[in-house]
Amino acid sequence: MRIVIVGGGIIGAALADRLAPAAEVTLVEQDRPGAATSGASYAWLNANDPADARYHSFRVAALDAWRRVAAGFGDPGWCRFAGNSAWAVAEPERDELAGRVARLRDLGYPAEPTTAAGLREVEPSLRPPAGAVVARFPGEGHVHGSAAVEALLGRARDAGARVLTGTAASRLNVRADRVTGVRTATGDDLVADVTICAAGWRSPLLLSTAGAGLPLVDAEAPGSSAPGLTATTTPVPGLVNGVVHSPGLDLRPTPEGGLVLEAADLDAATDLATSRAELDARAAELLDRARAMFPGLTARLDRVRRCVRPLPLDGRPLVGPQRPGLYTVVTHSGITLGPYLADLVAGEILGEAAEPALAPYRPDRPTP
Fold first, then answer.
1. Is 283 in contact with 207 (CB distance < 8 Å)?
2. Which Pfam families does the entry link to (predicted)?
3. In 176-283, which ranges are E strands?
């Protein structure tokens, strides 16, 4: 079977890794694999939302898939299950955090109310203010997206996959209502029995060339919620072990010992029209907030990135066939879901049988 995958982020890389041992796989990426959304993502591995029990279980299975991936690579530094620490000071955030912990515990998910002193036993540098509601989620983790993509594609290449970089897929080729592959920007036609669209937020443009659509938030609209902002610092080894969510600042470590910084308010203020000067100013604000959390912090900003996320209108994955020969895999939380989706999708494509776990997430379902 000939399979062409469009998109070299975490979804495309996981699919190539999973499919290459059993098929003739070609992956097409217009930039460098892992250089866009996957590389800029905060990349928190979690099933931390209990609102939809079915989707929560789906994400729990995805965490297990990541543990298998990490074990297969010898527990690399780019994937760590060091937990997530969170605290809230003001209302209604205090009640929300305490309630979320209780609901997650009812679902059997590892979630623990704790104290500032208890938190210091696992994160010695963290000092939540007096009176804060504090929680630990010890089964959660984080991934360094670009390194994960590199490792997955390296293994896919070893299994025979071809990876074409710096090559955009300009259109889907269609014959008698069947998608037969893609045409690249260089005018080459790549023939496929199955073409997988894993192009993230850019997927609607590619799919439109075959008359297909996708219910995503418009990333290019002014004020769109799809773009966000992350900043990475120079190394400060040992400052934190895992993911941290605090009022006004979220952070996690990088494999090199730096910090990835993000904040909901600055994220929401970022869109595709945000200038480089504005991005840099917001990143400086992130660093100021980190210095307030860690007095004496000597780290400097190393990289400032706009992260453009593919956001399905209902917040759930978009996975499944859209035309004969065309299969789409696009989702938010692509980092968390990538390897698990790859397992499920490979079962459908290679086994030619519908996967029940994907039934709620088909691209043609009704959406808001």
1. no
2. DAO
3. 178-184, 189-191, 194-197, 227-233, 243-246, 249-253, 259-262
What are residue 44's DSSP bridge partners? Answer: 142
Cβ 353 vs Cβ 347: under 8 Å: yes
Whether the upstream peptide bond of residue 92 has omega within 30° of 0, thus cis, is: yes
For residue 327, give the nearest of 153, 172, 183 by alpha carbon. Answer: 172
Ordered structural domains, the chain, with CATH: 2-42+145-216+313-361 (3.50.50.60), 81-141+220-308 (3.30.9.10)
**Facing residues of 329 across strands?**
319
CA pseudo-torsion sign 225, 318, 151, 76: positive
Q: Is 57 exposed, middle or buried (0-12, 13-18, 19+ CB in 10 A)?
A: middle
Q: What tens digit of pLDDT does each residue of 90-111 get?
A: 999 999 999 999 999 999 999 9
Which of the residues in the chain have pLDDT under 70?
none
Residue-level pLDDT at 324: 97
- Kind and range of the H or E element at 142? strand 141-143
The span from the CA of 5 to the CA of 192, in Å, is 9
pLDDT at 367: 84
Q: Which two tokens stand for residue 45?
A: 């591995």
CA gap 316, 215 in Å, rounded: 10
Distance CA(142)–CA(147), nearest Å, equals 12
Residue 213 CA to residue 139 CA, distance in Å, equals 36
Cα 339-199-83 angle, rounded to 5 deg:
35
CB-CB neighbours of 2 under 10 Å = 15
In the block, which residue shows the tokens 């939380």?
Answer: 333
Q: What is the pLDDT of residues 219-253, one digit of tens each?
A: 999 999 999 999 999 999 899 999 999 999 999 99
DSSP-assigned states of every residue in 48-84: ---SSHHHHHHHHHHHHHHHHHHHHTTS-TTEE---E
Instruction: Answer yes or no: are the C-beta atoms of 301 and 284 closer than 8 Å.
Output: yes
Taking residue 276's Cβ as centre, other Cβ atoms within 10 Å add up to: 9
